[in-house]
Write a structure and sequence with these properties.
The chain is mainly alpha-helical. It has helices at about 1-60, 65-80, 85-110, 110-115, 115-150, 155-160. Helix 1 (about 1-60) packs parallel to helix 3 (about 85-110). This is LemA family protein.
């Protein structure tokens, strides 16, 4: 009887040590994600503001594209009011989609490219994106390492127990 209790106690302690080790490792993997995002957050805000200027210029040019305007009206407030990192990344990705949509509109409506201010803002966004790309790569690498940790069996059991879930990657231009 004493041997069974001892074995059960050893197994329980080993399980607790393993759970603690996995929890600390997953928790430690979140710090680089937060740091990488903090490094690019200002540039993402600057980029979002400039994309907003392009949306306004598109509307002033008489281009009525419901997809663009509805996606922008949804994404920008979600981005500026995001309470969590995941919400902010999701909204930033939606803003990127709006920018790509604007770029497709320039092919259909050459009046946009004819406007020097539109081109200047567009080039400014490209400059910001060039500066953002290394930071986005660092963020995405940190997210990939974290996602592998929380989705790898048996660590996924501990991740689910403590509410760790996969995070969203930032879209790159």
């Amino acid at each position: 009887m004493g041997t069974i209790v001892f074995i059960a106690l050893v197994i329980a302690v080993a399980g607790i040590v393993w759970i603690r080790r996995v929890y600390l490792r997953i928790n430690r993997l979140q710090a680089p994600i937060t740091e990488a995002y903090a490094a690019i957050d200002g540039m993402l805000h600057q980029r979002a503001e400039r994309i907003g200027q392009l949306v306004d210029m598109t509307e002033k040019a008489g281009i009525r594209d419901a997809t663009l305007f509805y996606s922008w009206q949804d994404a920008y407030p979600r981005y500026t009011e995001a309470a969590t990192l995941d919400e902010s990344v999701s909204a930033a990705n939606d803003i990127s989609s709006a920018f790509y949509h604007i770029m497709t509109l320039t092919e259909t409506f050459p009046v946009l490219i004819a406007d020097p201010q539109f081109v200047r803002i567009q080039l400014g966004i490209c400059d910001v994106e060039d500066a953002l790309n290394p930071g986005i790569r660092a963020f995405n690498e940190a997210v990939l390492q974290y996602n592998i940790a929380v989705q790898h069996y048996p660590d996924t059991l501990v991740a689910g127990l403590f509410g760790f879930g996969p995070k969203t990657l930032l879209l790159m231009s």
